Amino acid sequence: MKKAILGLAMFATTFAFARTWTITTSCGTTVTKNISDNATISQIKDAVSQVNLNECGVRPTSITLTI
Fold this sequence. Notes:
Layout: H1 2-16, E1 18-24, E2 30-36, H2 41-56
Antiparallel strand pairs: 1-2
């Protein structure tokens, strides 16, 4: 029971401190993704690169972040 409560608390805090990013992929698809507020630039770029790979089948050659 303790594990379930702890797991639920961890899940809730992940979404409580997440920001929704709108990602436009290289093939024109627009996707929204929740990324943690304390993610580094490198982690954000990795997540965006993975979304582009999933949607378009290729890794992007460059990533532009607009805040």
